[in-house]
């Protein structure tokens, strides 16, 4: 099949934009957990409110200690300390409740978002996956979704808490000393301006970090998935360099982000503590003049620290929201993708197909390339049709139109007399079984992989399918039998064993239409014989499309279609096509000569010839 270079869902000029409405869309995922979130928010507000009480009590404690020097009456001091301890205890209690409730909300939202994103990806067409790297998609599922977790839980509550603390602290600052308050509050516009200015740059660089991580993840996944090819070409150094470039790009972007965050932290720290130094200087003069008590100055300082800490916290939240907007933008790019394989509003039911397939002037275009042109073909139910021809002739494309992995761009494809687009995709694909050349097995047990064809099947039905696929004997010989783990992509099994499990899976599904795409081309003679025997069982009574390069495997087909350049150029049985000459005979003679040469070489080596 064709594969265009991986690209993002949005053009480069649009990918840096952040729509604040994404935040509201993100928070919609927290709606099912609203009661828990409200309780967590309430606990946060109560904890923040209690924190506003303790500076005043601390000031009273100072005055009770220093203004009554020499007094034996410790009652006011004792009561103030007990009250402080009570405030701390209740505040800690609400703080613990807030932490648990909001963390649970965040974890729940992330789990729902991951499920929604993964489920949506499974609805997209093969065209989408041909245009996107797998590593980039998995990065969005993991890293990007994790980035938004804080926003959907603690960040919003902290925003509310910091707002309460800021308003309360400023109010109490003014009531404690209006002059000192003006001096303290003069610094806030500078802090907010700094946060907004640097925060925008942090948001942009954060997206670059996320993109770089996704790119390097995609490169790593490709190299690990094809490690045999990498090692066979001794391309380890090349892959290390390629992955290293991606990591380095992410490292450089992360350094830029760290530099901006450090700049923000440094500027804000200087502004905050510089303001406190001025407050201490001016407040000390007020105490010396008798306008303030030591306790009032301490109370004012603590409130000023709370204001500074709150403003710093809000700027941190601002940066967190910016990062989350960048991550959510990448997530919603995927969620906004729509498959071009549209389903009919009132889909025609298809419980059990007969298996008749009709191509009527079918054409298919991929991008600017015409892959299929003018295909007219009537296949009765139960007929075996073989497709042969040179690579790139359109054979795989033709059969992939049947389960609607792609849609025709011209003409009609009918199943049982109705356009396949009239059926629900699930119903249509339930009628089609596929046994490809490269069998994909899941990293589970043998039984789980066979049962993938029909999850509700019983153990007896699984074994029956395995026996029919000539797989039962080798399965019984595995450690654990049907419970044996096959490894990632079935790596613990041979090619012939994987194919027979795939055939058992297809038998268990019991489709009406069968597609065999080079199902035996990569096997040795012994494995091919076992697999071919299993395929013969599988094909009985089903409409079957067989794609094969080895013409010896298609002699028994009811019809052979010879394709070239996206068209059917010859049609007939093996004998008729050989007699007619043309492309089929050319292909056959080339393969026959190669086979004879191979047999001659094998005989020579067996005889010990040099």
Task: Report on the architecture of this protein.
The protein is an alpha/beta fold and 610 residues long. The protein has helices spanning 12-15, 21-27, 34-51, 53-66, 75-121, 126-130, 134-147, 151-176, 178-185, 188-225, 227-232, 236-288, 294-335, 395-400, 425-430, 446-451, 459-468, 472-476, 495-509, 525-539, 574-580, 583-606; strands at 357-366, 369-379, 384-388, 410-415, 418-419, 432-436, 513-517, 543-547, 559-564, 567-572. It is 62% helix and 10% strand. Strand 9 and strand 10 (567-572) form a beta hairpin. Helix 7 runs antiparallel to helix 10. The longest helix has 53 residues, at 236-288.
How would you summarize this macromolecular structure in one to three sentences?
With 610 residues, the chain is of the alpha/beta class. It is built from 22 helices and 10 strands.
Q: Give the terminus-to-terminus CA distance.
A: 42 Å
CATH topology of the largest domain, what is it called? Answer: ABC transporter transmembrane region fold
- Named CATH architecture of the largest domain: Up-down Bundle
Helix content: 55-70%
- Within CATH, the superfamily of the largest domain carries the name ABC transporter type 1, transmembrane domain
**If you average the pLDDT, what whole number results?**
78
Global outline: elongated
Q: State the total count of DSSP E strands.
A: 10
| Structural class determined from secondary elements | alpha/beta
Query: Over the alpha carbons, how many angstroms does the gyration radius reach?
Result: 35 Å
Which spans have pLDDT < 50 for at least 5 consecutive residues? 1-17
Order the strands across the largest sheet as they lie in space: 6-7-8-3-9-10
How many structural units, i.e. domains? 3
Name of the CATH first level of the largest domain? Mainly Alpha
Keywords: ATP-binding, Membrane, Nucleotide-binding, Transmembrane, Transmembrane helix
Subcellular location: Cell membrane
Domain ABC transmembrane type-1: 38-323
Transmembrane segments: 36-59, 80-101, 180-198, 262-283, 295-318
